[in-house]
Amino acid sequence: MNGNNSKSYSQPFAPCALRFARRGGQVLIPSLLIIPSLLLFVYLLFETTKISREKIRQQFAVDSAAFIEMGDYTNLLNRTAYVNGAFPYRIFKEAFECPGADGTNKPLQKSDGNGEICAYDMMYAAGAFPKYKNDMKGQDPTPLDDKPKWEIEFDNTARPDFTDNPTSQKDTPLFELITGDQGTKIMVFFKTQSIGFYTFYAQVYSLLGSVEESQFTVFDRLTENFNFFRKSYYLNSNVCDPSNAQTCGDDGLHSSGGFFANKLVMGGGGANSFFMHYIQKIDFWGKQMSSTWTGVYDRVHCQTPIPMTTPDPKGLFQLATVPDSTLLKLGNGFDVYQGWDAPSNYFKVDFNVIAKCSGMKRPCVHALVATQCPQMSSGNNCVWPNPTPKYQTRLYP
User: Fold this and answer.
1) Three-class SS of residue 252?
2) How far apart are CA 39 and CA 180, in angstroms?
3) How high is the pLDDT of residue 30?
């Protein structure tokens, strides 16, 4: 009986096992679909990663190149702001302010005996140099590092041409370093003091002019072919032929609204001009002992105004400026559209055709790079007036 029972228990399971054996072959059909799909997905992932990696590399290369190239503009504008304002302000303040660091700068007496005036104030009133608007009389030059705007300016009455940013070349035919009125009302002696003031003044602004001209010459050479952009892009993109390195990055540099379209040039009157303003001749007045009356002083001046074009044909440097429209372009940024060649792929999809940029025959990456003066709202102008050397290079996607 036990044997019959055992047999009766085992027989119902036999058909069930047979059904499982027959269903095992059904796994083969989904696997034939899933496994190739997985392989295709892996290939797709690999190809997508490959083209994404190349695009990221190109984007990094053009970002780096554009940022480095715009640094040339930032350096020029900051250095020009120093030459326009902070340097002459500090130099003449320390040289002529009364009583001076060692107490030797004595005030000049007025001719009528009623009061005195410092040589620093006299020359500023004549329009000889700019100074800080809130300059403290008789103290050291005011530190301006924490000021968002450096309000350094000429006397507006004496130098009205430089009240605002000049839009063209503004050379001064004749400049009176010590005016006729000052020569009458102030006891400034011609042969000792007036000539000494002129000599120092000419030396300082001659030096400042040499510095500014050298700065622009360096800038002009660096941006002649924009080699910093080309070299940076060449090193980071790894797509340029070494034998044609001088043409590497041409797409980006010649973009509409880009570097070549907005290159700064000296003078010329165009929208991208860089102006340097000069004095052609200088005259000055002073007191001299009368040849006919003892104890009486005559007012005299140079028999012939001193030409400033002898050492430099352009004259004696005064100021360097950039038009507001050009500074606004620099603040809004230059567009850089750099084309690149997409690599081939397993699926033989030509991304150079289907993903090409407008106006190009291939894909491109874009960078917007600017040089901006913080906290200045009127045309991005920190060169003149209010020469504030705080330009910064900024990169936008």
Assistant:
1) helix
2) 93
3) 66
